[in-house]
Each structure stands twice: as C-alpha cells, then as structure tokens.
Amino acid sequence: MAKAKAKSKANANELLDALTALEKQKGISREVLIEAIEAALVTAYKRNFNQAQNVRVDLNLDNGTMLVFSRKDVMEEVLDDRLHISLEDAKQVNPAYELGDVVEQEVTPRNFGRIAAQTAKQVVTQRVREAERGMIYEEYVDREEDIVNGIVERLDARNIYVGLGKVEAVLPVNEQILTETYRPHERIKVYITKVERTTRGPQVFVSRTHPGLLRRLFEMEVPEIYDGIVEIKSIAREAGDRSKISVVAHNEDVDPVGSCVGAKGSRVQTIVNELNGEKIDIVEWSEDPVIFVANALSPSKVLDVQINEEEKSTTVVVPDYQLSLAIGKRGQNARLAAKLTGWKIDIKSETDARELGIYPTQASESLSDIDEEFEDNSDDNYDLYKDEE
C-alpha cells in the first residue's frame, strides 16, 4: 500500500513538473490542463470499470492523489441507485444532508493510478497540440490583409508552400505572378488573404497578386501613407505587368504623388524591385471625375473628358500622336484607368472627335488650362518608364 502511494505521489509530481513546463513554454494554463485531465479521467473510469454513475475526479498534484468520487442526488424516491440516494441513507453519511443535495463518496479503484497516468499523458499531448494550433490561428487571423516575410519551402503542380515560421502557408496558382519563378529557400513577401480552421490545424492562404500587397508595400515604404497624411484611394493592378494607384494628401503642403515616388524615384523603385519589375503609375486622386480620369490616363496627355453620369461613362479626347499611348499595349492603360476610377472610358483621337463634332468644348478649354499648369510643374509629372508613343 505504501509503495502504491509512493508511486502515485511520484507520478503526480512528474505530471506537475510537466504541466509547469508546458505553462512556461507553450503558454497553456495549468488549470486548463488539469480540468481537461479530470474530464478525461471521468470518461476513462466509466469506460474501464463499466460504471454509468455520475462521478467526479479530484486530481491533487500537491498531495499526489487521483481520487474518484461518486455523485448521487438526495431524493425521496430512489429511481436509480447509481444516480440517486435516499434521504435516510444520505443522513447516515452526514446528518446535514437535505433533499436536493449531492452526496459524494470515494469509489477509487485499486489500479486506477495506471489508467490515470496513461489518460493524463494522452490528454496533455492532445491539448498541447490543440493549444498550439489555437495560438497559431489567433496569431495569423489577426494578420489577415497584412504582409509577411516567408521562405519558399516546396512546390507542387498547383501550389507554392511558403514557410512563415510556425505555419506553412499556401500560395495558390491563381495568386502567383505569372512572370515570377519561385525557387525553394527563396525569401519572398506575401499578403495574407485568409486564415481558416481545419481538422489539421490553421490553414493560411497568401497572395502575390492581390492589390492589398501593393497597398501594404507603399505603407511600409512611404512614411506619409503610414502616418495618414497621404491616402491611397484606389488601386488597379495587373500583377507582374503594370499597376496604377491614386493618392490624395490631407495636408495642402504635401505633394501626394511626389511623396510616393520619392527623391529620383527611390521609394517607388524599391517597390518595383520587390515586385520584380512591375511598372507602377502613381496619379493624384480628385473628386472631380473629369480631372481624375485625365490623371488616371497618365502618362498620356488628355485634351477633354466628357462625362455621362447616368451610364457612369466618359469620352476622352487625346492628341492624335498620343492615342496609342493613352490606350496602351493591348488596351492596358485604358483598362487600368477605368478600373482605377470606376468609370467606363472611351478614348478618341483629336481628329476623330473634331469630325464627330464633340470637340472642342468649353469644358475642354478649362481642362487644357489645368493640363498646361500640370506640365509647367515638371516635378509632378512622373513617367518612370518612358513609354513609347
């Protein structure tokens, strides 16, 4: 008997040390683990000893004891002696018991210590795994729509798997930039699009094509954006090829486009390098759609913008020699400008517009004045890529 108690005490001390270590290393509360172990011991007791009665397991690590107590409700009429006890029998245990009370009596089996040790080990292992998954999920779900640094770990036919430290993220084929080649052990920045709970733990999905990646890169590189002095209003992106962003300053003394470009293009060039040469046009946002659409078609010069509010469409007149520049290769410049502004854009050359009798107009003269002022301020005219007309 003394040996059994000593062994039980040793097992309890070993378990206590393990729980204390887990609390420090994994951040799992010892009380939470003890509660889970006690619940599992109840199930183990019922399964191993064919008992259907209500029981409670008391795990006292300080004393090195694991005791099982039956729990019976004090009733006038006993319907099931495994669950109920008469008031007369209850008072024999303790005269203070009344109807409705719960009587607890120790029913610990002789070999319960061995079963308890095995059960405790299983529960601790399971809870550690669950806790680690829970902590990883909470860490990364809070980082949705954020940039993280990762290392390409492996590739398969469709997905790239990126190591983020505690978890392996999935970069699906539709979120990969077609012009990029991913190699194992290569460091890349990725944008977390969503985090899901699965039976195998948290699953993190990342992207290299999401417009949010561009937004976060500018926030990291441009202090004025991070501080809220300059705001990115919209982004249109064809990942790996070209993007446009519109910006506005909430301080009249700050040039929003110049802030993003940086001295000699240094800030935007850092982002271009991160995206492996993706071209980025930065234009000033305006609440006036005429000015905004004209800016969005940069680097092309715009002579006139005619608005149709009902259809949310515009007709844009450009010089004949800049028609191809305004449209862009495969229509890309016009397509990105339309996406950036939210307006449909129909581009016409000056000659065609004059033949149709839609140009010039009074509005086009005022736009020309704005355009001349824009050209005079050469520091605000950023064409980093020298597009061919």
Which descriptors would you attach to this protein?
GMP Synthetase, Chain A, domain 3; 3 domains; N Utilization Substance Protein A, Chain:P, domain 4; alpha/beta; 389 residues; 5-stranded mixed beta barrel; OB fold (Dihydrolipoamide Acetyltransferase, E2P); single chain; 26% strand
Question: Can you walk me through this structure?
Answer:
About 2% of the residues have low confidence. The chain is built from 13 helices and 15 strands. With 389 residues, the chain is α/β, with parallel strands linked by helices.
CATH uppermost class of the largest domain? Alpha Beta
What is the H level of CATH, i.e. the homologous superfamily of the largest domain? NusA, N-terminal domain
Structural class: alpha/beta
Strand content: 25-35%
Structural shape: elongated
Under the CATH scheme, the architecture of the largest domain is: 2-Layer Sandwich
User: Spans with pLDDT under 50 lasting ≥5 residues?
Assistant: 376-381
Overall helicity: 40-55%
How many helical stretches? Answer: 13
Topology as a string of helices (H) and strands (E): HHEEEHEHEEEEEHHEEHHEHEEHHEHH
Distance between the termini: 97 Å
Radius of gyration from CA coordinates: 35 Å
Compute the number of structural domains: 3
User: Could you give a short account of the major beta sheet?
Assistant: 5 strands, mixed, barrel
Please name the CATH topology of the largest domain.
N Utilization Substance Protein A, Chain:P, domain 4
Output mean pLDDT.
84
Number of strands: 15
